[in-house]
Design brief:
The structure holds two protein chains of two kinds. Chain A has nine helices and five strands; from the N terminus they run βαβαβαβαβααααα. By secondary structure, chain A is α/β, with parallel strands linked by helices. By secondary structure, chain B is of the alpha+beta class. The chains are: A alpha/beta, B alpha+beta. The interface between A and B is medium-sized, with 27 and 34 residues.
Chain lengths: ~210, ~550
Amino acid sequence: MNIEASLVFVIDDNPAMRASVESLLRSVGHRVAAFHSTEDFLAAEHHNGPACLVLDVRLPGVSGLEFQRELKRIGRGCPIIFITGHGDVQMSVAAMKAGAIEFLTKPFRDQDLLDAVHKGLAMDIELRKRVKEMEALRLRFETLTPREREILPLVASGLMNKQIAATLQLSEITVKVHRAQVMQKLQAASLADLVRLSDKIAEAVAGAAG
Amino acid sequence: MTPSSDQSVGEPALLLSSFAHRQNQFWLAGSILAVSVLMPVLIAPHAGRSLTDWVVVLPAYAAAVLVIELVTSTFLFALFYVQRSRAILILAAGYLFSGALVAPWVVTFPGIFSSLGIEESIQSAAAFAALKRLGFPLFILAYAVLPDVQLARRLVASWIVVAVVSVLAVIAIACWLVLGDWSSLRLSNAFMRDALTPGLLWRLIPALAIALYLAGIVALAARRRTILDLWLVVVLGTLLIEIIQISYLGAGVRMSLGWWAGRLYGLVSASIVLVVMLAETIAVYARLARATIAERRARQNRLTAMEALSATIAHEVNQPLGSMVTNANAGLRWLANPQPELDEAKAAMHRIVEEGHRANKVVSGIRTMFMKGTRERTPLDLNLLIEQVVKQSAVAARLGHGAVTLDLDCQAPFVIGNAIQLQQVVANLIDNAIEAMRAVPARQRRLRIATTGREHGEVVVSIEDEGPGLDPATLDRIFEPFFTTKPDGMGMGLMFCRSAIEAHGGRLWTSTNEPKGAVFSFSLPTSPQPDPAPEENE
């Protein structure tokens, strides 16, 4: 894991708590940015690298759970570790359901927090990698002509060139040319590779639509 | 009698004989007596009419009186068993005496049980009637006049046995005297000249009875403290009317209309105490049930309070504790690094020390909030106190970019109060105000604290915020314990503030801030004015 590029955000309105968490994380080599409030956090410069967030549930203004939703909405979502003065089961269940990776009750064991942060950063790095891949794939997909996009699912579903030609009322030669173009543009090494990429694209398109 | 040392001073007014009567009962008793007087007046013209055929009703009447009086007596003995009041014992014995005498009276009454072969005598029935009439008011007189004492607990059962046995013995002796073969009474005409007409001695008995009844009424009226006393007056009143009807309106002739009307009064009179006792027992039972429910609820509340208190402590202490543990861990890790970072470790240590002090403050704050020992009152300068609180609780820092304004009236006089408690109140109200403005953008947070010395001997402190203001729907509940609008609040702060201010003889109230926000104000009486309330209102 590239710890150099990653950043841990800490939001806690209690200065002593904030300083202690910050110090603890720094002592094991994390880069830390600590904020007094969610507003300060949002106002700060956007960090474009792996990150995770250590968040006090009881925050000035909005509750931690609300803030978690808001971050997701504005596309700044990252793994969140909640800390709380007195965690009730209900609250922790809600937080975990909303995608928190850990819910720690003060006073917590330092190793628990460090493990959670480690896990959070790893998750974010993985996430970012996948997003990057999808993005690259999307860009490749966009280079396809409308006709090629039409042919792709048919090829992926295992139809012969002849069948595709019949379906789209094209000559078999034309289908062959388009098919070669698709393979090349999507950088697919084999038919199996193309099927896999096609699935991913379908997923990405569905994800974008949903 | 061996009165025990513990008088019935501390006895809770839970038993019939110790209840003070209420005004409405007084009127009820009065109107029953008034109606009772009315009937003899109405039937007076026909009082002499003879109704000899009705003699068959007499055993039923006697049985009713017997049962009612014996049940009343049992009831009173039971009451005595619980309350150990000598007066109640005397009264119970009186009812037993009166009820038990009904038996020989009706058995020897001429013309009733002759078919059973029981020897009857016109004199004996009259003798028993005379004994009942004179004996019962004597018991009531004793009840009213003798000073009431509480008897020793371990002797209560023995006292009941003694009372029952002596009453029955007296009646047995009376029977023996009246009915014995040697008795000359049967042959004389002392009580009755014939089966219906009373004799010379019977002329004396009613007068004597009336005198005793009146004496009893006077004695009870003088004592008239409890429900029982009140209704015993009614009992004697109806007995009085009975004897007047039997002996004078009916011309003393047995089986006349007046005589029968008198009997009716006897029945009513015998029932009064029983009916009243049953009614009051129901009332007492209801009251007891209510008290039990209230007590149970109070206990539940106390439990909830304890729960809430422990949750408050846990939450308030966990905050600095959590920070201390994390700081200590951070410090250890800084020291454990290949190149120990001493400055970082030192900084962590410093934070631990600070947090330790903060935890201590939290605990002592909770103590001052909930524990006693806040009685010491001294003259205080509220302005100084407010300035200290504002400084101590780092109001400016917590407001961020917001502004805090102190608008203190330097003319405001001193107040008498407990500095720790009042500091806690001010700090609580400031905390609430800051809390209320959390959602407000930092630059628009404005907190204003003002004091004014009013002319009529009080200082008013108001704490104004520009938060969203108070929700009208919950406005009247904010001072209730455990009511809170904060997601993790305990609902203790405002309740504490109000009780503390009221303990100082002041008031705490809320109003709306213009253009937005809430104002919490409290007033405290000023010190030069000798106000007795604050010292005793604890």
